[in-house]
Amino acid sequence: MRARGPIRRSDWLKSLGVLAAWAAIGVAAPNVLGADKNSTNAFTPAQMGPFRAAHQDPPADQGVVRSTSA
User: Fold this and answer.
1) pLDDT for position 70
2) How far apart are alpha carbons 8 and 35 in whole angstroms?
3) Cβ neighbours of 32 (radius 10 Å)
4) What is the 3-state secondary structure (H, E, C) of the chain?
5) Can you tell me the distance from the alpha carbon of 8 to that of 29, in angstroms, rounded to the nearest whole number?
6) Using alpha carbons only, what angle is made at residue 52 by residues 46 and 56, rounded to the nearest 5 degrees?
7) 29 or 13: which carries more pLDDT confidence?
């Protein structure tokens, strides 16, 4: 490319456009289109622990042993 002169602004803009397109096609599209919202392998609330969504109720038994001594 440098043999034909310096890198121009249009070259940078084309490169950024290609980068954005590949990011959308290669990363975003598979994550959006391939997401299985009704997966049978979903995490349980106990597995999510502190990372569960705010609207979820805490599980009844998380397997945590609490000390009764003061």
Assistant:
1) 52
2) 40
3) 9
4) CHHHCCCCHHHHHHHHHHHHHHHHHHHHHHHHHCCCCCCCCCCCHHHHHHHCCCCCCCCCCCCCCCCCCC
5) 31
6) 90
7) 13
Residue found under tokens 């392998």: 41
Tokens describing residue 59: 């599980």
- Distance CA(50)–CA(58), nearest Å, equals 9
The alpha carbon dihedral of 12, 17, 21, 27 has a sign of positive
Chain length of the chain: 70
* pLDDT tens, position by position, 30-45: 888 887 777 777 777 7
Q: What is the C-alpha radius of gyration for the chain, rounded to an integer number of angstroms?
A: 25
Which residue type is seen at 23? A
